[in-house]
Amino acid sequence: MLTLFALCLWVLVLLAAVAVPLGRHARAGLVLHAGCLIASLGFVAVALGVLLTGEPVESQPLPFGPPWAPTRLGLDGLSAWFLLLLGIAGSAASLFAMDDGASGHPLPPRALPPFPLFLAGMALTLAATDAFLLLFGFELMSLASWALVAAEHERPENRAAARLYLGFAVLAGACLVPAFGLLAGSAGALDFAAMRAAPPEGWRAAAVLLLGLLGAGAKAGLVPLHAWLPLAHPAAPSHVSALMSGAMTKIALYVLARLLLDLCGPAQPSWWGVPLLVLGAASALLGALRANLEDDAKTLLACSTIENVGLITIGLGLALAFRGADLGPLAALAAGAALLHALNHGVFKTGLFLMAGAVLHGAGSRRLDRLGGLIHAMPVTALAALIGVAAAASLPPLSGFASEWLLLQALLAGWRVSDIGFQVLAAAGAAVAAMAAALAAAAMLRFFGLVFLGRPRSPRGAGAREAPIFERAALLLPAGLTVLLGLFPGFVLGLAAPALQGLVGPVIRVPARGTWLAAGEGATGYAPLVIALLLALLLGITWMLVRRRSPAATARGPVWNCGFVEPPPHLPFGDPLTQPGAAGIAQPLRRMLGESLLRAGETVDMPAPGETRPGHYAAGFTDPSGPLLLAPVARLRDRIAAEADRLRHLTIRRCLSLSFATLVGLLALLAWLEAR
Amino acid sequence: MSFGQLPYDVSHLLGGGMLLLSFVLLYQRRVGAVINALALQGGILALAAAWQALVQGAPQLYLTALIAFGAKAVLIPLALRTLLRRLDLHRTVETALGIGPSLVAGVALVALAILVVLPITAGSRAIAREDLALALSVVLLGMLMMITRRNAILQVAGLMTLENGLILAAVGVAGMPLVVELSTAALVMMLLVVGGVFVFQIRERFDTVDTGFLERHRGEAE
């Protein structure tokens, strides 16, 4: 099985190498992405194989690697679960990109080689059995995705986004390397088995928690470190942002789960879950709120990704807390919720980003204020979008509801931990998570309504065309999977049993029974098939009653258009002001929550009576991470640069003295260490 | 091998001689005397290499000794003297750190080298341990000389001492391949040429070999 996996990795690396000389060929995109599709399907097959047998597999030592230890590839339940997600997201993204050029927006040749490397880096991170290979894959993933974010660097905002993205990627690496180093230091070896055998204690454990949270959080987009996400996703090509949002943030969460839940051992205290819970709740709330205020389709989806990453982190934090309190079944419930939501979100968010790409190709814009009424021009895209949006809004019987229900059940069981502080925190977390889910539903409603319903808002939007064949297939694949995952979450969670064993130890029972999801001791359950049947029945009866059993004959009347007159024939889309716009729908939430959480503000500039200039109204918000985190960091960077600049003015003798002093200092340190 | 055995005592004596000459180099107030001491140190290095060749039964070390003698005891000092005469340089040593403080710093560096090397090499052969400590001291003193002297020729001398220390460490270890020695010697020759050219350049442009004078002409110093 690992042979197949290694073969797929090789195919990806070869594709990247071949794409460099042949990138300018007209068919290069098609061939390259078809290769990526095949490799991704291979990943799905490997992951399913490992999950179905439930046995971890490990390869022979690889013929290359670091000189100090043999390097092995290996997959256990946890990595296979995320590999499944990577394979699905990668397949959809590759399929979408096979239409590269058909829609008149060919990718630049420089965007081709990093894509297979991006996939390979993520797969390598998952298949690593030692810290070196994991960090190597992680950095490969970061660098390749940076190259993809910077692919369309003609526009200055893309360059700025790529720079910020690289900064956060460097931060992630700079935190993860010492985190694994601390673990390896107490274990004496870099491979995971040795690290598990020697879990860290005391300040080392706290440092690993902090560094791991910073490192993986910066890559996943947890709240204080989320600033790159809403900028980098719109900058990257659509299939790349789909993969970044659907798979890459999950790989970061995989690293977080691997580091904190697996490698640090099962004996860590209960309070370890608290930082994850707090950061996750903050991410969920902020992401969902921002998703309601953004007016760019991809930025909106990126903010929704922040929300979902927060929800998954809440699940992981709860699992840590429950496990520390010896509540095995509840830990399995929370971890199961996190894993299921990771998969579900990865699938539907991939579909949604691809949909944004299809809309960009078909209707020429990402801005919500330039789209509208696309359900007529792009029916297949609209169907896929509807499914994805409903899942993101966590409507039953789709996949988003199943995992968020499970997560809320886990949160509501927070009182079982005896610590009163944690009980209060879990209750607050449940409130925040529920609020985030409601806000996300509002954001998705606004998104779908503005893009697909109503009338077109621009001539280019009115002339939209349906997506070409591969793009449509790429949209329908995640949409279909979203429905399936939603209808059979029990089966899917059954597949995750080996992964759960990796996270919370030998599981007493997976929180699922057949197709049902079952929380706790079977007191509550969620049967999506029954819900779906009931919903269908209800809809059918309503339809019957309205259409067949009503006493009067059905008559179609004009739609009430909010009191505005019909558009004149020479203005086919109507006056744009007769339709609600993105800012208008966002206004109530911006005033209610945005003013306190996002420093939202409005300014009205009214001309004095008699003045002829127009009045001006401006509304906006500032993400708190900008002034609170990025600006001080930028000031610090400038100060350091100014200090470092003074080194340039040193004389030759002083430069030599500096290196001499460093050498003597290091020797003195060595002597001191030996004396101890 | 320990105290009282001839191979150990002789190599210890030669290494100690090199260290003593390093201090002599630091102490000198005239450039000509510095070059003399440098030549003497090169000669002792050649002796140490030859003694190691005899003790270890490694005939290639005789070649090392020959190269060290030819280059360091004869050729380079001669070249430096010629340079000194041709350029008609100041014959006094211009220091950045006074002679007395330099010597104190040198003693501290030797102590540091011993503190570092002896515990690390606790398990290995005695001769390598002592030799390594002496060689590290010589290296550190060479660096100290480079940063406490303003004259370019003295800085070249410091670099040479540093390299002598490296070679002393290399010959003390059994089985050191000759290739490394040859390349190191060639490297030093090249460095000397570079240094010579450097000095000529300074002489032509500014009529002095004080590198402190150079700093004002870099364009970016205040």
Give your account of this protein's structure.
The complex is a heterodimer of chains A (676) and B (222). Chain A has 676 residues and is mainly alpha-helical. Among the domains of chain A are: 272-545, no CATH class; 625-675. Chain A is built from 25 helices and 7 strands. Chain A has helices at residues 2-22, 28-53, 77-97, 114-127, 131-149, 156-187, 192-197, 202-220, 229-235, 238-263, 273-293, 297-324, 328-363, 374-377, 379-392, 399-412, 420-452, 459-462, 469-487, 489-495, 497-504, 528-547, 582-597, 625-645, 652-675, and strands at 57-58, 74-75, 512-513, 516-519, 524-526, 601-605, 616-620. Chain A has a 3-stranded antiparallel sheet with strand order 3-4-5. In chain A, helix 4 runs parallel beside helix 10 (238-263). The radius of gyration of chain A is 26 Å and the shape is globular. Chain A starts with a helix and ends with a helix. The model of chain A has no long low-confidence stretch (mean pLDDT 88). By secondary structure, chain B is an all-alpha fold. Chain B has one domain (6-172, 179-215). Helix content of chain B is 79%, strand content 0%. Chain B is built from 8 helices and no strands. Chain B has helices at 6-27, 31-56, 60-87, 99-120, 126-148, 152-172, 178-206, 211-215. The N and C termini of chain B lie far apart (58 Å). The model of chain B has no long low-confidence stretch (mean pLDDT 76). Chains A and B meet through helix 25 of A and helix 4, helix 5 and helix 8 of B.
Low-confidence runs of at least 5 consecutive residues of chain B: none
Number of helices of chain B: 8
- The radius of gyration computed from the alpha-carbon positions of chain B, rounded to a whole number of angstroms, is 18 Å
Largest sheet of chain A: 3 strands, antiparallel
Report the mean per-residue pLDDT of chain B as an integer: 76
Rounded to an integer in angstroms, the radius of gyration calculated over CA atoms of chain A is 26 Å
Helix content of chain A: 55-70%
Number of domains of chain B: 1
SS summary, helix count of chain A: 25
Average pLDDT of chain A: 88
Number of strands of chain B: 0
Strand content of chain A: under 5%
Report low-confidence residues of chain A grouped into runs of 5 or more. Answer: none
Helix amount of chain B, in percent? over 70%
Query: Structural class of the secondary structure composition of chain A?
Result: mainly alpha
How many β strands of chain A by DSSP? Answer: 7
Structural class of chain B: mainly alpha
Written as H for each helix and E for each strand, in order along the chain, the element string of chain B is HHHHHHHH
Indicate the overall shape of chain B. globular
The fraction of residues assigned to DSSP E strands of chain B is under 5%
GO molecular function (chain A): oxidoreductase activity
Keywords (chain A): Cell membrane, Membrane, Oxidoreductase, Transmembrane, Transmembrane helix
Membrane topology (chain A): Multi-pass membrane protein
Organism (chain A): Roseicella frigidaeris
